[in-house]
What we know:
Chain A contains 13 helices and 14 strands. Chain A has helices at 6-20, 38-43, 55-67, 78-84, 86-94, 108-112, 124-129, 142-154, 202-214, 232-242, 257-268, 288-294, 299-310, and strands spanning 3-4, 24-28, 48-50, 71-77, 101-105, 135-137, 159-162, 168-169, 184-188, 193-198, 219-223, 226-228, 244-252, 272-278. The mean pLDDT of chain A is 97. In chain B, helix 6 (152-163) links the parallel strand 2 and strand 3 (169-175). The two termini of chain B are 15 Å apart. Classes of the chains: A alpha/beta (311), B alpha/beta (272).
Amino acid sequence: MSTKxxxxxxxxxxxxxxxxxxxxxxxxxxxxxxxRATKFREEFPDRVIEVGIAEQDAVDIxxxxxxxxxxxxxxxxxxxxxxxxxxxxxxxxxYPGLNVKFIGLNGxxxxxxxxxxxxxxxxDVGILRSMPGVKVLCPADAQQAKEAASxxxxxxxxxxxxxxxxxxxxxxxxxxxxxxxxxxxxKSYGHDVAVFASGFVMDRAIxxxxxxxxxxINATLADVSTLKPLDEExxxxxxxxxxxxxxVEDHNIYGGLGSAVCEAACRLAPxxxxxxxxxxxxxxxxxxxxxxxAYGLSVQDIVNTAKEAMK
Amino acid sequence: xxxxxLSRIANRLRLDVVETVHDAGDGHPGPCMSIADIMAVLxxxxxxxxxxxxxxxERDRFILSKGHxxxxxxxxxxxxxxxxxxxxxxxxxxxxxxxxxPDSKKIPGVDTVSGSLGNGVAIGTxxxxxxxxxxxDNYVYVIVGDGEEEEGIIxxxxxxxxxxxxxxxxxxxxLNNHQSGGRVTDLSSLYPVPDKWxxxxxxxxxxxxxxxxxxxxxxxxxxxxxxxxxxxxxKTLKGKNIPYMEDNNAWHKRVPTDEEVxxxxxxxxxxx
Lengths: 311, 272
């Protein structure tokens, strides 16, 4: 399967929007290259605020900028943003509801792959989902990342966009809509089991759906690209139809998609939900595909878990 | 306004703080007293404000980075007409908009959330940059405590503000040599403070933070510097002008009794 960079795709959308809105600026704690914003900087040299390796400062500066009416987009690695600058996001941006956008790179272990634990981030969604007022987007591939970046800029207030390493499998064709705030059914062969997936493991979920079909199990796959606000009604509808579900995400099983689906299930459609993701462990360096296989996110793992859910 | 008039306003604000913390039954009075003279100069002379239009885009901005000293900010805002003085007694209570720390979401005239220490200079850097990018001709004023300069983000912001040559950013360092847990000079190796800001390429002045003309002159000097942010290092006394509070860190957070309020009134009665 070919790959395409979610980083470049999202930044293209930011750059296009910046041509129409001179309030949009990028705040970078030495992440212009990482965020693929060098072209943005060439076109708008005065609209990249480079603060050096200082994530907390970057977020506070963005808060100050937004308080004057600017529309800053803070770009850097997901963990340095959501963990090192966690309090700044929460207290100085989210609480006052300032119009600051966040792009987190290396989301998931796939994002960090060979870098190891310091640069793999699988807590970011959980951290941000727990903050009132922060919206969380997790697109599945580059095409969706570009759409998601545009959707992010249309929202008022803080939004977090989770991106990967820049080598994400291409899953969806051009023109596939990004359905902000709504899950999107990717494939539906039947209602034996629901599969909810989010982010750059979508290709594996699609393969698993086909494999299940070959084995006579007809599943429905939904792309949950808006993790907050979660489309609870959409989740409940699928859960009611299927009566059992599997969640698939490159995130710890606490705090991310799996948790969100379970929260909705408890309230609206109680049923068995099995969560695939990092099973509350720290992974290690390795090639992306090998890592996902090693830590329980292989196609076979998804297939087996779906069958387990049906027992 | 004369220096004497501003000094009397500063004392009026000090007494407001004593009464507010007494009436509310909670709050940090000591840290307010060391910045009272700076607050009087800023709010009653220097800053470009419109209390009728708190969000006026052209206004000067103010950040009380040492946000626990908010009773004096609230007193200044009330006396400038942002809200009635009677509201002060609601400080920290559920029905009041006067939060335990400054809160731009709930309090008219407050430009940012603050009080999680160390963040004011960085937020002020963003404000100064945002105003400049939009062609707004104004100043961003920040008051930082000395203890909070132990926070790393202060120095991240010091680097950025100097890099961006923010001549519209003026910071006051309230050097009262106290923090929650004791003397700053016992808890850290922060001092001497001015040298550190100079090393980060800031325009640095050192003054007596209770000398009104010195504060006025320092602001005038800071405004002449257009290619660097300015810091005005103010030697101050925690608890200044309230006899039992002066240089007594027990008053960092403590509620005065009825009798102590009366002592404060007597001490200030000829200075209001």
